[in-house]
């Protein structure tokens, strides 16, 4: 999902950062001795005078959040790698990997957040300090109070393992739809290698997308804010900790109500209640409670598990406004296209990622594929071409618009930074490297620690690439030829730069999977499995790069030594690969038919895996028949090139209008990659949360930030952390207790607030 760009032209970032006004306050005595090597006064936000909102400077630029909200305090004497770090890191990595894999096969688009891992780690780490003796040899197991560096390393390990690898989803799709079951060792190595390739690329991009202040990763601010509040011990942080636990307990006690006995509260639609399940149109436009039900116009949610998907307390207001504008256009575009039979989808499902026959029944791909999964053209002539639902086709087109716009957006707005990074890379290769000049207090604090040498990353990259190539040749025929793996890995490197700028400055993640699959269709015509596997190297590698960059930034914010961050990533990836695969095997074996069904159930759904299969058949086997010029879905391919034009008029307006004028500010405010993506963002999963996000987002990032800046700085990001943490904990408990993750679901008795799914959807719209 997707936040907004900062409102200043990125080419001017360095000048503006050096001249930005930063509120300077007294540095705690505990850290004062460690500042001798600095020639500037350290910023300590923990003792800022926040009680009087009128005395607190309003944060104007988005990137200044990282300077004014987060402290640059560091304690180099604190150990990062201890028994607690390894024990809790490995344990929570296994736990997070299992939970994240369960969520992959759920109808809700949920994930295991870093905040969830952070809270569990804090409780267990503090308990270990209290319980384990600290005298004699015990001091090696309990070297002192649980500290922020141990905590950060554990969080990085656990969150890395909790990020489900695309490789696992593709391996599940192979099993479900092609009856190809990879050897366990091959599957695990494939998952691990696909992640490590991205981590190798991340090492090359550190100076561009980690060290500078403009790369502030908005969604990580609440994580760091909570870590500092838990471990820095002044009076203000004691108040923050109390506030955090009050909110945590409150949401923990509330969240189980909309999730289990009263699911109607996850999507409250007055219009659906008034219609009482009579009309398909009402369900399609206003429904939002059940998977693949509707796009949720005027639907509100009270479930934070859903609301947090829009990050309303975290994303900068500009990001949120662009996403809401995109969704507003989406309500109109999706509805008009469907009811005007665009792409021939009027008689199909309203929302689904599956393929269909023209009469609306699910497309049987086995009828058109040979035994080796290549296309049987004779059978295709008899069976006919498949159809996407209209909403899914429009969504893919919008994602491709966004992809094209992202590339040009970064070139236009960040050209000076790109040139600077390129010059530095050239000087590095020539061994003429100059010291990096980055005016960022967090980065300057990190200079005392040893960096990870570039050759570590390059070695990791080469070995992982070799392993990935080897794993592709372990079946009867190559899953993907070696030259294609290298080609799409190179493409993913370039994409990581463009997408990295968007993620670093807005928190928004642009999806490129549809664009990559279209490229693969023309590189591997008639090869559905090859097109599916390209996702590992052209799509997954890009996002693994971004995950590593984000964790490097987390380490910079908390002053975790870079080598400890690197090691934590490696451990988390190894543990995650093993448990991702083993848990996936258990779920797929127990729920095969449900996961293959286009709509699934309230408990299990294969909608994520189905996307890969649909793309492999439509693009891999039938790419030229469906996506070539003058074919049914040719616009999906050409939308990438059309998207290249989207940012140009806004950049020209910004460049050639008088600075400070309304038109100039408007042009710099519009983020076309985010806006375009959100036009097609709704035809998935459940959508009951977005109007709640609008209200909360404006209340937080506009009203509180502008009129209550003191409260905003003290509590806004901590509030987000508490809400995320409490809701994640109760969802985990419910998943195993009643939602079937333990093998058997326990349905709550049917009543008005939990309607019979055969009669009504969750929000009492017409059942699908």
Q: State the helicity in percent bands.
A: 55-70%
Terminal-residue CA separation = 26 Å
Q: Biggest β-sheet: count, sense, barrel?
A: none
Approximately how much beta-strand content do the residues carry? under 5%
User: How many helical elements?
Assistant: 33
CA-atom Rg in angstroms: 25 Å
Morphology call:
globular
Mean pLDDT: 83
Structural class of the helices, strands and pairings?
mainly alpha
Number of strand elements: 0
Flag low-confidence runs. Answer: 1-51
Task: Give a brief rundown of this model.
This protein has 768 residues and is mainly α. α10 packs across α33. It has 33 helices and no strands.
Descriptive overview:
Its main location: membrane. This protein starts with 12 loop residues before the first helix and ends in a 31-residue tail after the last helix. It is globular. Mean pLDDT is 83; it is low at 1-51. Helix 7 (166-178) runs antiparallel to helix 23 (528-558) and helix 23 crosses helix 24. The chain is built from 33 helices and no strands. The chain has helices at 13-19, 29-32, 65-68, 83-104, 114-131, 148-162, 166-178, 184-204, 206-209, 221-231, 235-259, 270-275, 280-286, 304-307, 317-339, 377-383, 390-413, 415-429, 441-445, 454-471, 482-506, 513-523, 528-558, 562-590, 592-596, 607-621, 623-627, 634-643, 647-656, 662-669, 672-679, 690-707, 709-737.
